[in-house]
Write a structure and sequence with these properties.
The structure is a single chain. By secondary structure, this protein is an alpha+beta fold. It has one domain. It contains one helix and three strands; from the N terminus they run E-E-E-H. The mean pLDDT is about 80.
Length: about 60
């Protein structure tokens, strides 16, 4: 897997950050953030999984 290193300048801080480009896949690796909906989905699945575990897997 061959990678090219490009340095892009951050418009907010003026720093140059490394960005990797994977030629075989055509993907760029860069810093980003996790969307709020994805965090909410993960939390919701954990809550649902806990409920399901307690409700249907506990001896009653």
């Amino acid at each position: 897997m061959k990678m090219d290193k490009d340095k892009k300048q951050d418009p907010h801080s003026g720093e140059k950050k490394k960005e990797y480009f994977y030629n075989t896949a055509g993907l760029r690796e860069r810093e980003g953030h996790i969307p709020i909906w994805l965090i909410g989905l993960g939390v919701g699945l954990l809550i649902w999984g806990t409920f399901y575990l307690i409700k249907y897997w506990s001896p009653s």
